[in-house]
Amino acid sequence: MNLNFHESGNEKGVAGQQTPFDTSQQHSDATAILASKSTDTAVQQRKVVKLLTLSGRDTYEFRRNGISHPAGRVRELIAQGYDIRCTRITTVDENGFVHVGVGYYCLVSAPEAAQ
User: Fold this and answer.
1) Are the CB atoms for 62 and 106 separated by under 8 Å?
2) How far is residue 18 CA from its own chain's centroid?
3) Residue from 96, 78, 99 nearest 88 by CA
4) Within a domain: residue 2?
5) pLDDT (0 to 100) of residue 28
6) What is the pLDDT of residues 48-99, one digit of tens each?
7) How many Å apart are CA 85 and CA 95, to the nearest integer?
8) In the chain, which ranges are E strands?
9) Residue 44 is part of which domain span?
10) What is the pLDDT of residue 92?
């Protein structure tokens, strides 16, 4: 799974070929990942990683992005070597209900193979 979202500029390789650091391709890949409606576990894991590379997320934000079981996806990613931290927060959902103890996840680091 290639999840390198390095933001070093729009570098080109030999004869204009894309390098791993071509941000235009990365932006396109990231947009495709986030737009995906797939419920495939691997696709949802990539979506969770991409969302967490942008910023911390709570359970409700993941669900609004199509991740029906965020804690399960996070647990799977941790088993793959991702360092994802969870704290508990109080938040208000889109219907105005207060929820105490909602998971708020932050990506600390990714395994070497994913970088």
Assistant:
1) no
2) 23
3) 99
4) no
5) 63
6) 999 999 999 999 999 999 999 999 999 999 999 999 999 999 999 889 999 9
7) 27
8) 10-12, 18-22, 57-58, 83-92, 98-109
9) 40-114
10) 93
